[in-house]
Amino acid sequence: MRTPADGRNGTFLGLTFCFTGLCLPTLGISLLVPQPIINATAAENILLPVEHSCTGIPAIKWEYMSNWGWGLQNIISWKAGIYVNVSESYDTRVHRYENGSIQLLNVGMKDAGYYVVTVVEELGAPKRGIIILNVYEVLYEDLHFVVVFIAFLAATAAILICFIWVCDKFVHIFWKKLRWLKEQATEDIQLQTIEGESMEEGC
User: Fold this and answer.
1) Same domain for 119 and 166
2) Which of 1, 120, 122, 168 is deepest in the core (most CB within 10 A)?
């Protein structure tokens, strides 16, 4: 036979389990990676964006793995208001944000690879996300060659235009001179004809 105390204890335990059942789903961590693939150029500052939500204060850790798969390298890990650990190689190159995102400064070809973010909360299972970063090198030598080649073409075009203009003037003067010579020859022939006719009349 159950006593009133046992009933109260049973009711309390029942309410506790109900409360726990209602609350446990809200204790889980949600992690969103809005941009799983990022393309960047060398020397650019890039943002690795994530968004997370949880009820407590999570611990966040970012790690890097090269395209060759040489293991995970720690970048930065922190728990808001408690600790921040930054890898020495990233000490001056990484900025962190409250939503879990990080920014890498002056990326190079060596930064291309996989970035793994882990969000851990005491009362929830850890969540992980991956961002693939592709870094492309700006070929300044090729750009320099293109600029020089375009400048050379422009200079050549200017010289050709000047040459054509000079040739056109020369041809114009030549034809003008030739026409004048023809006119002079025609006048000479006419004068000779007139003089010949005059001499015949005089005879």
Assistant:
1) no
2) 120
